[in-house]
Amino acid sequence: MRTIPGLLVLLPTLLFADEVYLQGGAKFTGRIEAQTETMVTVNIGDGVVGVPMSRVERIVKGRSPLDEYEERARRLGPDDADGWRSLGRWASQQGLSAQSRQAYKNVMTVAPDDAEARQALGYILHEGRWLTEEESYRAKGYVQYDGEWMTPSEAQQARAGAAADQARQDAERRANLAEAERIQAEARAEKAEERAREAEERDTWGQPVYWGGWGYGMTVWPSANSLSVNPVNRP
User: Fold this and answer.
1) Which whole-number Å values give the CA distances from 50 to 3, 56, 97, 163, 213, in the listed order?
2) What is the mean pLDDT of residues 182-192?
3) Domain total for the chain?
4) Which of 88, 163, 200, 227 registers the highest number of CB atoms within 10 A of its CB?
5) Which residue intervals of the chain are DSSP H helices?
6) Distance in angstroms (rounded) separating the CA atoms of residues 100 and 84
C-alpha cells in the first residue's frame, strides 16, 4: 500500500465510484477497501492508495467500475473467450488496465491466436506469427543499442559516433592535464629562481671583493665591528 503524506496527484475519474475529496480540491476515485479514524485506503484498479484522514475533506460512496468488473468476471466461465474479450475491452475503456490485461490473458488461454487479445497485450503479427515487440524487432533484423531498436548500420554509426565523442573527450582531458602540468612546472621554476635570488642577496655581504682604494690585493667589505676603533694613547 502506498501512503501519500502530502499533496496528491489527480487520477483519471472513474464513473460511479467511491470518491475521496481532499483538502485543496484534489480527489481520489476508486473503491474504498478500508477506513479507520486515521486512514482510508482506496483501490484505484492498478493498486491501493492510502490517504491520511487528516487530508480528507469528505467521502462520497458509489459503485465503482472495479465492482462492476468483478461482478461480471464472476459470471464468466473459464472457456468463455467472447465474454472475457468483451470484459477486457470494457475494462480498458474504464481505465482498469490491470484488469483489462487479465481479461485478455484469459482469452488467450482459450484462443491463443485471438487478434484483439494479442494486440491488447502488445504482441505483433509478423509473417503469420504473433511475436513480442522484442521478438518482432529481432525477426526484422534490428538490434538494440542504448535502449533503442535500430538497423545494424544505424547501430554501427551510433557506436562510431559514441567512440569518436569518447576519443575527443579523452584528448581534451589529456590536453587539460598537460596544460596544468606545464603551469605547475613554470610556477615551480619561478619559485626556484626567486629562492636563488634571495640566497644570492644574502651571501653578497661578507664575500671577498677587489677594492683598489684600500691597497693592492683582495680585501673584504668592512663590517660594522671593524669600523669601531678603540682610541690609541700616543706619547
Assistant:
1) 5, 11, 20, 49, 106
2) 89
3) 3
4) 88
5) 65-75, 81-93, 97-110, 115-120, 133-139, 152-204
6) 9
Q: What is the chain's length?
A: 235
Grid coordinates of 33: 477497501
142 touches 151 (CB < 8 A): yes
- Per-residue pLDDT tens for 21-30? 898 888 888 7
| Residue 192 CB neighbour total at 10 angstroms | 10
CA–CA distance, 201 with 207 (Å, rounded to integer): 11
Q: Which residue type, as a one-letter code, is found at position 81?
A: A
Question: Comparing 116 with 6, which gets the higher pLDDT?
Answer: 116
The model's pTM is: 0.47
In sequence order, the β-bridge partners of residue 31 are 43
The answer to whether 120 and 100 are in contact (CB under 8 A) is yes
Q: What are the grid coordinates assigned to 114, written together?
A: 485471438
Q: How many CB atoms lie within 10 A of CB 66?
A: 22
**Structure confidence at residue 119 (pLDDT):** 94
Between 75 and 145, name the one with better pLDDT: 75
Among 57, 50, 63, 44, residue whose Cα is nearest residue 5: 50
User: Which amino acid belongs to residue 97?
Assistant: S
Q: Which pLDDT does position 10 carry in this prediction?
A: 35
CA distances from 201 to 143, 151, 195 (A): 74, 75, 10
CA 39-20-30 angle, to 5 degrees, is 100
> Range of 188's domain?
143-193
Domain with residue 29: its CATH number is 2.30.30.100
* Cell matching residue 131: 511475436
Task: Indicate whether 224 belongs to any domain.
Answer: no
